[in-house]
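Dear U.,

For the methods section draft, I wanted the exact inputs and outputs in one place so we can describe them consistently. I've listed the two proteins in the order they'll appear in the manuscript figures. Please don't edit the token lines directly; just add comments below if something needs changing.

First protein:
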Amino acid sequence: MRMVFIDNVQRGMVTAQDIYRDSENGIPLVVKHTALTDFMISELMRYNIKFVYIDDVLTKQRFERMRQSTQRQIYVPKPKPIITTELRNTAVGDVKGLFESIRINPEDIHSSARIIRQLDSVVDRLVDSLTSNANTVVNINNLKSYDDYTYHHSLSVAVLSIAVGQYLNLGREELRALGTSAILHDIGKTAVPIEIINKTSKLSNEEFDIIKTHSPEGYEYLLKTMIGDENICAGVLSHHEKMDGSGYPNKEAGNHIHLWAKIISVADVYDALTSNRPYRMPMQPSEAVEYIMGGIDTSFDYDVVQAFVKKVELYPVASYVELSNDKIGVVLNNSNTFRPVVRALDTGEILDLYSDKSMRSVVIRRVVAEAEIKGN
């Protein structure tokens, strides 16, 4: 074990100790025996971590495995993205324009209403893309960006919500309205002071109470802009309600919560958990789904969660994963959502994480960025 200053830390180095933000209290930023990625290193720098302790033995072993892996090129055709880059950029641009317009001039209802109407065509195209094939599943990684989180989050929640609604057999007009409600679910945050929205540390109780006003604020704003569809407004108002009645703003429970709010709630939490935030690193997709499944009947509706798991790709075909046995592999088949079939890059062997009994103790440690594979 040796101490390495953060400026000298390289991708692939393996940590020898847990790394904490301030002291050895709370949840570590990175746990020991983790192979550091470029993203992790940049985050540690952002948290003002000056140095880390590196396990040289494990680091040397990992670099050797990665070297062997990249000697074997395995081509797996990538499925065509559901949402094109052009549609994603248009959607994010329109949402950003709407939020900024409201912040600059909240009294200019006509301008905001015009932008909201522009979103109708975006939602139409999202519905067309997702309903073109009844068996389509969503790879949300294609939509993620660590820049402009709020606006990409709105798009991701809309895509996930439409996909769940499709599985629940909602009609086209219902899917359009659900998508509109989802893409506008956080519009009320324009009434929250920007310093609270952008705060990187834990919110105080008073600040969290202010955050909780965003759903009724959004509801009221939609009424002002004559977006008076009852279902759209209900989705915005109630997406933080919980099945056991412990949510906000009205402590609705069970069947009293609108279906669209239940759908948006699951999509909202999943995308938030799997996104990088100033106060924590993202969860792995399977961890986020496990968290959501653990909240069935307390926070989330059973039927909605079941539909969500059916429609979201945790490990897309042609993506790379690192296994708990330290192998790096490419996903060949993901018909089993949590336990895909993987081809090891170093040996080319097929690893069926579900059917092969010898693989039962092996789990997916993390999704590996394509740039990380090609960079080694």
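Second protein (the one for the lower panel):
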Amino acid sequence: MALTFKGGLHIPDSKLTAKLPVEDLHGDTLHYFPVTQHKGAPLKPLVKAGDYVRVGQKIADAEEFVAAPVHSSVSGTVKEVCPHVNSVGVKTETIVVENDGKYDTAELRPADNYDSLTTREVLWLIRDAGIIGLGGAGFPTHVKLSPPRGVDCLIINGAECEPYITADHRRMLENPVEIVDGALIVAKLLGVKRCCIGIEANKKDAIDTMRRETRYGSNIEVMKLKTKYPQGAEKQLIKAITGRNVPTGKIPADVGAVVVNVDTIYNIHRAIRKGIPVIDRIVTVSGDAVNRPANFRVPLGVTVSYLIEQAGGFKAPPQKVIIGGPMMGFAQYTTDTPVSKTTSAVVAMLEAPSTYDEDMPCIRCGKCVSHCPMGLMPNKLNSAAKVRDVETALKYNITDCIECGLCSYICPAKKNMLQNISAFKPLAIKAARRDNASGK
């Protein structure tokens, strides 16, 4: 029986590239590296215009704990350090490297003496490799693997519930040995006895592959999850696999669990065993506007336009290009955006919804409430957000919203609740912290 959580919805998954093996792409002429690609402290460039860099060389870092360095994916000369648009449409400090095509590699230092390393040393290796939540969250992994209290369950997230994206699916099919090794490294690091890999039922080949790989001596359970969005959300995954609810204002560690994306686990294996930092990733290029949908292994820093070109270009001018999935991704106004660590997909659509928020009246159908995976009342939150009513928004737990977009997706009145709520949420959080600090 497939495990699941209350709420959510099965939406057309459109996994056009699920059966397509990953293709290796060479780098482009210019590579763009935003100096900060994670959630946490901003980084500072370690190089300047005219410097020569090598593959795997650290080019940006910070002294703060909640940070993850950026490494070059190519060798060549730093052309400039300048503002350039990133995947969320904001211009940010970016290191531009002119690829010389030689791919000279910086010295790599695998942990040959891994078994003798302390927990702190292993965490430092993970941090130094620039590993973050590669499923899209972007939180530094060494911080997540330093929970404030003991945990008893490690959950590897292989759900990949967003439509179109098949990057994690292909990773499980093509690198199961490395994933198991990475999972064992993290399980040992956390001191947990239970380790589970959660995979949606629509990826039967991945379930079978991982079960074969974990059959003997690994103590890793492969759990079949119901195909339902957002099954891969952290709190929903914990509920489905362990039955535990993460309370409002708490983190997974508070209920004894840590969740790590399957591609993040692969990169932990690669960093520890081979000394290779995060310099590439699998990116799905898909959608009905793409001539040749594909899965590519991409050196970080190439542009979306380069990926589209490798996928045969557009059939016709797309109405929308999204980095990430169509539910939680970011629509782009330019294809000059570079691939960063959290770029799991590029989806181009010939047609996209354009009728949101036409002020059609809410018919009180309750669909947004019954399908909300967090058990919230999106209609109330949407109304509060529109009039900037912080008190009401906090009353209805706006801080619990995971911004999955289901409320907008199923609303018959075509209200863009997600945009309104997500735009207002930071203001509500700030107000709540201010009230807490003042003792209100």
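Candidate sentences for the figure legend, describing the second protein: The radius of gyration is 21 Å. The first strand starts at residue 22 and ends at 24.

Thanks,
Y.
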